[in-house]
Design a protein that fits this description.
two-stranded antiparallel sheet, disordered C terminus, mainly alpha, 487 residues, 3-stranded antiparallel sheet
């Protein structure tokens, strides 16, 4: 027989939410003889309070917006350098965390980091702060984000919270981009509009003081806002619909052509991966056409600056010359490369004046992520790096069948396909040196990899704790009811 403890009103509230409790492998009806005694809670809710490390990780991402410039606000250290490690420590100490199985991707990541450390030791720059931070921000931490993403954000409720955090960041960055161009006196922090700080002054560059990082982060936040809009969450879905076009407009204001191409490629990939998105193609075309026509009518100076930026050839010549020098390095040092973070400025030895291209800067940083890895670490290392990308972020975007208890994962895989495409395309034309784009893209890919790569089995939960695969403890209406099968 079925015995329900708790008030009748509470039980009705549980039924009203469409909740059921399944005992064993089948429901127990009146008069049946049950085979075991089992207590099951009603399904958990997205309204539950998340573990502290979930909140700390999201706050760490938000604080990473200030990376490299936190001292301008009087902070002795960037807060993300504290918040993210603290989140990882608390995750490790949580006995109820989702368990991970070691896989090929993790092995390749360890191998790549070890190779990079060996390169730093061999060339004598292991203790150089700039090379250490480059290793952390471009390699170690993105790998860590991918590996811990499915552990920290292992439930629908936690993943929704991450979407909300990224959408809130997109709101701030989008508003900041608009203010930088049209009302710079309102921008905060003030160093953003200081021409002596950072680079790309005159374009939307946000708290990064750099247009490339601003564009990449806005692009990621735009994708998260669109996924949040489809989650049917009161108020938050509306906010997602507002933030997505605002973030896209911000990407345009950055004047970063690689990000423009990346967003276009990412949207196409998302449409291929998610058939549900294809019904929005007419609306997207109408909105895009309306935006272009409206800008031409009401913002002619902006349209002119965009065309001027699109036609600028100076940066292209610099990158072609630098990349040509990088290929010469690979030809001369195919196995070891020139050394981690040594191409700039030591790559000048391989620079040549071209008869076809003017040379403005003798050597700049290699403006391609993959080419940079091959130049600095050699061809064996870049093969490992490519395998990591294929078996990790790219695989996380592969559509699969539904996973019980995780109805939101198909949307996350479409988001991963979009974000990774933006990162790869932009990475063909830029070094992606700022940590935030790397952190966010690899974290999204890791979250989307739940159940695809090495993440599957949650740890056992104590009595009264959260159910495997669900959010944390349910709200009060659910906690009051327990459905018990009694022999």
């Amino acid at each position: 027989m079925r015995v329900t403890t708790g008030g009748q009103a509470t039980a009705e509230a549980v039924r009203a939410e469409g909740s059921t409790a399944v005992i064993g492998e089948r429901s127990i009806s009146r008069g049946a003889t049950p085979q075991r005694r089992t207590v099951a809670h009603a399904p958990a809710s997205r309204w539950a309070r998340p573990p502290v490390y979930v909140v700390l990780m999201i706050l760490g991402l938000a604080a990473n917006l200030l990376s490299g410039h936190s001292h301008r606000l009087g902070l002795p250290i960037s807060p993300d350098r504290i918040l993210i490690p603290l989140a990882l420590i608390l995750l490790w100490r949580d006995p109820n965390r989702t368990r991970a199985r070691w896989g090929a991707v993790a092995t390749l990541m360890v191998l790549f980091v070890a190779w990079t450390l060996a390169s730093m030791i061999w060339h004598g720059n292991l203790l150089t702060p700039s090379t250490q931070f480059a290793l952390l921000d471009r390699t170690v931490m993105p790998f860590v984000m991918f590996l811990v993403g499915p552990l920290i954000f292992s439930t629908t409720g936690r993943r929704d919270l991450l979407l909300k955090g990224l959408t809130a960041m997109g709101l701030y960055l989008g508003v900041t981009a608009v203010l930088e161009v049209f009302a710079p006196q309102l921008v905060f922090p003030r160093y953003i509009v200081d021409p002596e700080v950072g680079m790309h002054f005159g374009r939307a560059r946000g708290p990064f003081a750099g247009a490339e990082a601003m564009a990449m982060t806005l692009a990621v936040c735009m994708g998260a806002a669109l996924v949040l809009a489809g989650r049917q969450l009161p108020r938050w879905s509306t906010l997602g619909l507002i933030v997505a076009p605002l973030a896209l407009f911000g990407v345009v204001l950055t004047g970063t052509r690689s990000a423009w191409l990346g967003v276009a490629a990412g949207i196409l990939v998302a449409l291929v991966l998610s058939p549900a998105l294809r019904r929005w193609i007419p609306a997207m075309l109408i909105a895009g056409t309306s935006g272009v026509v409206g800008a031409m009518i009401f913002l002619p100076s902006l349209v002119q600056s965009i065309f001027e930026r699109s036609a600028a050839n100076g940066p292209i010549y610099d990158r072609l010359s630098s990349n040509a020098a990088a290929f010469r390095v690979i030809s001369d040092l195919p196995l070891t490369g020139i050394g981690w973070r040594r191409f700039y400025p030591h790559g000048s030895e391989w620079a040549r004046q071209s008869d076809a291209l003017p040379m403005n800067n003798a050597v700049i940083e290699v403006h391609s992520v993959i080419l940079s890895r091959a130049t600095e670490l050699g061809l064996p290392a870049v093969v490992v790096f490519l395998l990591i990308i294929v078996l990790g972020p790219l695989r996380s975007a592969v559509p699969t069948g539904p996973i019980p208890g995780h109805p939101d994962l198909p949307g996350w895989r479409a988001l991963s396909g979009y974000a990774v495409s933006v990162w790869l395309v932009a990475g063909l034309f830029g070094p992606l040196s700022n940590p935030m784009p790397n952190y966010s893209v690899w974290l999204i890919a890791g979250v989307a990899s739940w159940g695809l790569t090495t993440w599957a089995t949650p740890a056992p939960k104590p009595p009264g704790g959260e159910l495997a695969g669900e959010a944390d403890s349910p709200p009060r209406a659910y906690r009051a009811a327990r459905t018990t099968s009694v022999p």
